[in-house]
Amino acid sequence: MTGSDIVVEALKQEKVKAVFGYPGGALLPLFDRMMGETSYQFILPRHEQGGGHMADAYARASGEVGVVFATSGPGATNLITAIATAYMDSIPMVAFTGQVKTQLIGNDAFQEADTTGITRPITKHNYLVKIPDELPRIIKEAFHIARSGRPGPVVIDLPVDVTLAQVNTKYPKEVDSLPGYQPKYEPNPKQIQRAAELINASERPVMYVGGGVIASECSKLVRDLAEKGNIPCTTTLMALGAFPETDPRSLKMLGMHGTAYANLSVTNTDCLIAIGARFDDRITGKISAFAPKAKIIHIDIDPTSVSKNVPVDVPIVGDAGIALKQLLPLIKKQPRTDWWAQINAWKKEYPLQYNRASKELLPQHILSELSRLTKGRKIIITTDVGQHQMWTAQWFNFTKPRTFLTSGGLGTMGFGLPACIGAQVAKPDHTVINIAGDGSFQMNIQELTTAVAYNLPVKNIIMNNGHLGMVRQWQELFYGKRYMQTVLKDTNPDFVAVAKAFGCEALRVEKPADLEGALKTMLASTRPFILDCIVRENENVFPMVPAGEAIDRMLGMT
Do 418 and 451 contact (CB within 8 A), yes or no? Predict the structure, then answer.
């Protein structure tokens, strides 16, 4: 077998159902070998970054490892943003990059880049394959590392001569021992016992759930813990859907643009139970004022995340699902009457709200209507990054895991459209909708061609406020309304005309009275669709915690 044969065999052995990739000189032998293969679907993006986001979203929607291919030099460097996006959000992905011949590495050959050096800080692990017989072991390890422990992207840099060389070793069935990589799945029983004692003794507990719960596939156990312990639950942006927001115990999202009642509950809790979360700055705000009255329990499979940003009282290193299974039998149900009375009072006093009498179309109205019209349907929402992302988190009610896909850690504009495509490939029986801003949608707008080429009926709602909305909001609130390079309305394209040029269906809606009909038309379409929503240009996302403030110091609470 050649190196190219080994790659194809690996995809079969790892049960890969879809790959995303863009050809180039350094990958020609491999692409030639993949010609006619039917064991997986091959999706050609229109830019390598788009392909990377598609593979990332495929992994988020399916729970499987996403796979992407790019050629050497600029092909590999175009993947960088997508790899970093997956790394920050702990998404399992294997990226195969082409490389110049081994004897030319380091000689500034045509389309050469130090891919392993460039990607080392933004990957869980990476490989430069120089010995052909090591290729089967390397690919097997890459898939194992990507999906195990705290998931993440792995890069395999493939010199063109390795893809052509004869390989005398077979693809292994198991991974050999990796002494430097031993994820700890089983938690310490004594720590589990300590956590249970703290929870049972607490009067005002709060569960703080992160994306690790979705990675561990333990959303049901989180719901069971909330029910048995009668504990309110708040989620991070990455965990939306891990706890149903229709449940009365839900506090929805916390943090910079979280609900006031979630932030007030965390500020006043006496026991914070963090599960698969990393205490990032958008959640904690001013660290010294974060959960100041609480004993903190932190369950996470990554020991480097525990007490990294916030000191914790009971660290539990291990798989969240295993830890919750051991913790549940030890938890006692308690009425917590006073605590629930306080939380319900905050919910009544500080609800999410907007001007429902507005004569202008508002993003909150769009998302509330979309949530209502899609209730009961199999649906996945992707977003770009900005105001529309936060409005989506606030106003669309998520009830199931793997139904909200967004760039949480890196905050990557241009993620939404290719992510929408990757999710649709993973879940063809779902309605997949991308919520975008007019600025972010233009960053990977070329991927509309990909959606059309593969007959993927993805929906795109553009919150068109004629600005880079979130940056404009900060300029309004903190920079004296000096709108430096954030006004787009005079230079934006006609998105309806652009959509039709790509072969998509499209509508524009400007009045609240026309919204329901437009949404129904979009949802009924069997083709790629763009709904250009002209929304109020100076609408802001509230509540908002200013950078560096305590999370109970919110703007726009009323």
Answer: no
Distance CA 407, CA 53 (A): 10
Mean per-residue pLDDT over the chain, rounded: 97
Q: Which 8-state DSSP code applies to residue 165?
A: S
CA 509 to chain centre: 28
Q: Are 300 and 319 in contact (CB under 8 A)?
A: no
Q: Which two tokens stand for residue 237?
A: 């942006």
190, 130 Cβ separation under 8 angstroms: no
**Contact in structure between 475 and 481 (CB atoms under 8 Å):** yes
| CB neighbours of residue 179 within 10 Å | 6
Under 8 Å between Cβ of 469 and 388: yes
Instruction: Decide: helix, strand or coil at residue 76.
Output: helix
Longest dimension (CA), the chain: 72
Closest CA to 464 of 489, 497, 496: 489
Confidence (pLDDT) at 361: 98
Mode of pairing for the β-strands spanning 93-99 and 66-70: parallel
Contact yes or no for 98/137 (Cβ under 8 A): no
Q: How far is CA 500 from the centre of its chain?
A: 29
The pLDDT, as a whole number, for residue 558 is 65
In angstroms, the CA 205 to CA 227 distance is: 13
Rg (CA), the chain: 24
Q: Are 459 and 523 in contact (CB under 8 A)?
A: yes
Tracing tokens 């048995």 back to the chain, one arrives at: 228
Dihedral (CA of 503, 18, 371, 447) sign: negative
Residues β-bridged to residue 253 = 235
Report residue 466: phi and psi, to 5°. 70, 20
CB-CB contact of 394 with 368 (8 Å): no
Distance, CA of 272 to CA of 312 (rounded, Å) = 10
Residue 457 to residues 47, 226, 240, 499, 528, Cα–Cα distance (Å):
20, 37, 24, 13, 4
Q: Is the pLDDT of residue 325 over 80?
A: yes
pLDDT tens per residue, range 196-216: 999 999 999 999 999 999 999
Query: In which order are the strands placed within the sheet that holds 153-159?
Result: 41-43, 18-21, 66-70, 93-99, 153-159, 125-128
543 cis-preceded (ω within 30 degrees of 0) = yes
394 within 8 A of 257, measured Cβ to Cβ: yes
What is the model's pLDDT at position 557? 81
> Using one digit for the tens of pLDDT, what is the confidence trace for 289-300?
999 999 999 999
| CA gap 270, 335 in Å, rounded | 16
pTM, to two decimals: 0.97
Q: Where are the alpha helices (DSSP H) in 319-386?
A: 320-327, 337-349, 363-373
**Which pairing describes strands 431-437 and 379-383: parallel, antiparallel, or unpaired?**
parallel
Torsion angle defined by CA atoms of residues 502, 503, 504 and 505, in that order, rounded to the nearest 10 degrees:
130
For 50-69, letters b (16+ CB in 10 Å) and e give: bbbbbbbbbbbbbbbbbbbb
Q: Do 95 and 70 contact (CB within 8 A), yes or no?
A: yes
Instruction: Provide the CB-side half-sphere exposure for 22 (13 A, CA).
Output: 22
What tokens were used for 382? 């992707």
- Tokens linked to 6: 């080994």
